[in-house]
Design a protein that fits this description.
By secondary structure, this protein is mainly alpha-helical. It is built from nine helices and five strands; from the N terminus they run E-H-H-H-E-H-H-E-H-H-H-E-E-H.
Length: 261
């Protein structure tokens, strides 16, 4: 699957490419996750094209050939088809401006590029990067299944109904499948997950579970206190309105009857 794009041992007279590369992540818009289950090969290619072009245009020194070579070395990709790859990458880059982004670990990208994976493995890949796009630069974030499924399907916004999802993703909206994916991500992908007594769930990739629970409980306490104060203000407002109405009632003027001498 697209193996020839990765750097390998150079042949005679072939320029050696950095065997490690410098890039840790390929940052892409979540829309490029769309269709990953149906045609993984095409999705891998689009991720490749986008990442190449996005890095290429950041470089401001050198000729296009030099910048492309530096870009390929950055990602540890073979230096192939410069014009065609940049052309395809430009189309994708301009198609998805201001999109939610997710970062694909360079080694994980290589693994899914080289090895055949089951649909469940691919669904875990999608869920992991969907959640990363939801958390973004924050330490933790609240989400729900509809947003998770939407991002897995390459949608920037949450869905209202599961019928909006592709057929392959709909299979994984079954409760058992969704729980199985979340369990796998917690056990093997570094996901920290908490969903006790909450609407939706909280996730993090940087905190431990105890710290995440602490943050959720602090947020709950603030929410309860806010609700209490809001209710108190409502009651105070109701009392004030009642007092104002009573003070505005016209007073009856008492009139006496003259008593004859």
């Amino acid at each position: 699957m697209f193996k020839s794009l990765l750097a390998s041992t150079p042949k005679n007279n072939e320029k050696e490419v950095n065997p490690v590369g410098k890039a840790e992540f390929l940052n892409i818009p979540v829309q490029l996750l769309s269709g990953f289950l149906e045609d993984t090969r095409m999705s891998i290619r689009d991720i490749y094209y986008y990442a190449l072009y996005a890095h290429f245009i950041k470089l401001d020194k050198g000729t296009d050939k030099e910048k492309y070579r530096a870009t390929c070395e950055w990602f540890n990709f073979k230096e192939l088809d410069r014009e065609e790859n940049l052309k395809r990458g430009k189309v994708l880059f301009e198609r998805y401006p201001n999109s939610p982004m997710t970062g694909i670990d360079r080694n994980l990208y290589s693994e899914y590029n080289k090895l055949e994976k089951s649909d469940f493995d691919k669904a875990c890949f999608l869920a992991y990067h969907a959640l990363k796009s939801i958390v973004g630069n924050k330490i933790f974030q609240k989400a729900d299944n509809r947003l998770l499924w939407a991002r897995m399907d390459g949608k920037a916004k949450s869905i209202q109904d599961e019928s909006e999802l592709s057929e392959k993703i709909r299979f994984f909206t079954q409760e058992y499948q969704t729980l199985k994916i979340k369990r796998e991500l917690q056990e093997n992908w570094g996901l920290i997950y908490y969903a006790q007594h909450t609407r939706g769930f909280y996730v993090s990739f940087k905190m431990d579970l105890k710290s995440l629970i602490m943050e959720v409980m602090k947020r709950k306490r603030k929410s309860v206190e806010k609700q209490r104060l809001d209710q108190l203000r409502i009651l105070e407002q109701q009392v004030m309105e009642k007092l104002n109405k009573s003070s505005q009632k016209p007073k009856l003027i008492e009139t006496g009857t003259d008593v004859p001498d």
